[in-house]
Amino acid sequence: MPSSHISPVFVGRGVELTALGEALSRADAGEPGALFVGGEAGVGKTRLIQEFLGRATANGAVVALGGCVATGADALPYHPVSTALRSLRRRLGAELDAAVAGQEGELARLLPELGEMDRGQPETDSRARLFELTVRLLERLAAHRTLVLVLEDLHWADRSTRELLSYLLRALTDSRLLIVTTYRSDDLHRRHPLRPALAEYERLRTVTRIELPAFDRSEVRLQLAAIHGEAPTEQVLGRVFDRSEGNAFFVEELASSIQGGSPGGISDSLRDLLLVRAEALPHDVQRVVRIAAQGGSEVEFRLLATVTGLADDELIETLRTAVGAAVLQPSDEGESFRFRHALMREAVAGDLLPGERSRLSRRYAEALENDPALVRSGERAGRLAGYWFDARDPARALPAMIAAAAVARGRHAFAEQHQLLERALELWDDTPEELRHQAMRQGVDDGLWPVISPNAPGDFVDLLAAITLAARLAGERERALAISKRALRQLEGDPPISASLFPRAVGSARAGDAALGGGDALRAAWFWIERCQLMRDLCRSDGWDEISRAQKLVKGLPPSVVHAHVLTHLAHWYINHQPGPLAIETAQQAVELCRMTGAEVTGLAARHTLAWLTIHAGDVETGLEQAREVCARKLEPGNAQILLRGYGNLSTALHGIGRYAEAVEVAEEGSGLADRHGLPDIASFIDGNLAESLTELGRWADADDVLERAGGRRGVSARTQGQLAGQAVELALARGAYDVARRWLEGPDMWATGSYPEPQNTLPMARIAIALAAADGRILDVRSLLESAVGEGVASGHHRYGWPLLYEAAAAEARARGLAVAEVGREAAVERIRDAMKGMPEFVPLWSAQSLMIQAELLTAEGEDATARWTEAVAATEQVEAPVLPATARLRLAETLITRGGAEARGAAGELLRQADAAARELGAAPLASEITELAGRARIRLRQTDAEPAPPPAAALGLTTREREVLRLVAAGRSNRRIAEELFISPKTASVHVSNILAKLGASGRGEAAAIAHRLRVFDG
To answer: Which uninterrupted H or E stretch holds 46?
Structure first.
């Protein structure tokens, strides 16, 4: 219903409409984007968006609109997205249903109308999958049409909505999707959570931010003329412009007052200004408006009818009057009403008396309890919690808060679950004890948190457990740590003795443990395991103290899920720190306990741990079979994360024992499954393992492609990004791009930092550092790095990382022989390496070959004849799948034969060098190829058998791969990295990496020198 108080003409905003129109045109062309429209309250953001959407719809775009709620947002996670999806479903019907087919149970967390939600174990990866499935749904819907997704009032957005939006913005690739959001810039105080988010969004190339200014004097003149039907006098224009300061909404309110005959009777107070229109309504209409204001941002007609007590016809007429006065307006769905502007609702609600607010909230809550169908099922729990909280009735509010928190957990809205539980904490002391217990027991039944004790009392500690878990999943680790500490103080009384006072193995319980009953001991153990995860995430502990404490608490108690959980964590700790017989025994106990107690998902993790330990204990085939059995299980929402991470673990186990081809096969399958199940971080974690194995197989170009794919996924964690960077550095080292490796090593480390680093991270990093030091001839640094990394020996169970590390150190000693600086301390350095090798297993052919290579290098370093040992090493490396190892062994054997042999030995050396050279050139291993060429030149050995045989292409002789030759050709032509990327259909980042590799191989200081070298050597002739 039109209002004479609202301008029928759209005024100004030409620049902003142009920006929106250009973004729409780009989306039409398949270039997605996002616009954030900010401005003070009332400046005209909604009117601008309405005008734009009208034009977009006329051009054939499909529009989906959702708005954030002003109050109780934490109780309604994803509300604007759910509303937008609901409107899409009404518009597209069967097409949307087909797009979500197979994922209804998970996407029901955003759109409950799709059916029952899956009840898989909520974890952070599950939420990443929900986000990924949402992105894919929007991509499908925007594949053949332009889709405009509008999210209004982002300043009120719940945290889960902000995080989903952040994920979506990074996911914009090749679809016809345009995202438009609005927010109040004057609401963004210094600590407002949207402020840093906006700064983050603006760094994305797909995001544009528009700040909507107030109208100038000429635009206010046009607005008033459109409202009144005639140009305003200068006196009226001046008064309105001065008081409104160009705010479009205030202009309307002032114009309404002037039209009503009260040009000077308006208070300077903003609230008074906003209330003028509502107070001009008839008394019965004012009453309904006040009731609607307390109902929230939008109130359903049936709910409003119940609370007001009016018959339908009477309420319709009352609402008609409020709509005609431009106070209320019907929602797009037509089943509910909202204020025409949120400022007016805030003013009306703020004008209510305190007792009036609580009384109205109670009436809303009671109406909803009596007839739950008055609101949508997905909003019911959150709305009810908000109403009872505002009614100031703890006895009713606490159960409602806990029920709403359980619903939020089911939707993977962990931040909102956490906030609801914090409110429950506020209400706890004011709620009768029996009601507390009932509410908590019901919360456990509703999935609020996992059952710890079969006889859960539903007491304060149970609430603290729920808050601890929710806070951890929401990323609020410090709060989770504080709450867990409070819970343990409640359970155990005195501060716990540090477990570091106990030996790192099973021990007796401390005296104070006897005071805890079985149920309390289980709950205390559960909290200690939570603290273990938190302390490790925060890099404040390696987890032993916490696990040890939990272990002592469950010792002697009947089997339980908590007991199984503790042993599984203990076995995993042993993997990283003390693998061996005790670790295997612990893992076996964990598997059995999981079976006995029905802890199926934890049991899968325990079985993976057991398989890993079995492999590295020497029973390789048994361990591999155990791991394959777990991976073969049927994927379900509750076990997908464990099973898919199992593919990553199996692939890296195969890699560690040198079975690279099998590792590639497993990793490719696991990465594909993780992608299809919407788990990007796990997919990229597996791809990191895949790239590692491809590198060892000599498939370096394939490894480049995999790393680019893995790093380009949305939703990849910093830790996984660090893993991928580490693999890229391995490739850079092999290619001789030492500067790339140095920059990474000297930069902020993303995956092995903290006070408690693990050998699986520190040993590879030490090997890279040693390789770089050796390349620079810094033998003393090599020795210092080795001593820091291994001390008296390689950490037990980490031989897969130890053998390559020791080889780099041994090779550095051999190459440094003859240098004066290396003489002092050589004997001790060689002995340190030999000591570190003692006790390291060699039951895998790869490890046996690496051991022989190390022994040969140490003999060379000592000036001894290493011919026999290198001959054995060549034979051993020929049995492994990594082409770099036999090429290196042949080079070293040839070097030994040339140094110590006669003419016959020189002939054998030539053949070895030609074989090694062919492998190095094919790989693009510049440092290895350079050493071979240099040795052959010194020994006057031809690397080609006959003169008739054509010489290798200059680019190949330089160690350039096919792709690097293509890039060098474009560099020589003066192309930028971006132009190279466009011409070769690769990313600019990949083009930059190729250029860095080329400069390193050519020894060029820049692009110009690289081009000159290419022309001088006639690299591209023919």
So the answer is: helix 45-58
Nearest to 57 by CA among 24, 34, 15: 24
| pLDDT average, residue stretch 48-55 | 88
CA dist., res. 487 & res. 657, Å (int): 45
Whole-angstrom distance, CA of residue 875 vs CA of residue 692: 24
As a residue count, the chain comes to 1022
Token pair, residue 702, equals 């394939």
Rg (CA), the chain: 35
Contacts of 260 (CB under 8 A, 6+ apart): 280
> Residue 486 has what pLDDT?
94
What is the tens place of the pLDDT at every residue in 154-205? 888 888 888 888 888 887 777 899 999 999 887 787 788 888 888 878 878 8
- Whether residue 193 contacts residue 159, with contact meaning beta carbons closer than 8 Å, is answered with yes
Edge-to-edge strand ranges of the sheet holding 177-184? 62-67, 147-152, 177-184, 33-39, 207-211
Confidence of residue 505 (pLDDT cuts 50, 70, 90): very low
The rounded Cα 267 to chain-centroid distance in angstroms is: 51
Tell me the CB-side half-sphere exposure of residue 92, using CA atoms within 13 A.
24
Tokens of 798: 């980490």
Tokens standing for residue 21: 């129109």
* Numbers of helices and strands, H then E, in the chain: 50, 8
Q: 411-441: per-residue pLDDT in tens?
A: 888 888 899 999 999 999 999 988 998 998 8
Q: Which two tokens stand for residue 93?
A: 């019907």
- What is the per-residue DSSP string for 284-303? HHHHHHHHHHHH-SSEEHHH
Q: Which pLDDT does position 500 carry in this prediction?
A: 41
Owner of token pair 């210092």: 784
**What's the one-letter identity of residue 401?**
M
* Partners of residue 927 on adjacent β-strands: none
Closest of 343, 329, 327 to residue 42, by C-alpha: 343
- 946, with CB counted inside 10 A (0-12, 13-18, 19+), is exposed
Token pair belonging to 556? 């002697």
Chain centre distance of CA 445: 30
Instruction: Determine which helix (DSSP H) or strand (DSSP E) holds 608, and give its type and residue range.
Output: helix 600-616
Antiparallel, parallel or unpaired: β 177-184 and 147-152: parallel
φ/ψ (deg, to 5) at 294:
-80, -15
Phi, psi torsion values for 109, nearest 5 degrees: -65, -25
The 3-class SS string of 886-912 reads HHHHHHHHHHHHHHHCCHHHHHHHHHH
Q: Give the containing element (helix H, strand E) for 36.
A: strand 33-39
Q: What is the mean pLDDT of residues 223-247?
A: 79
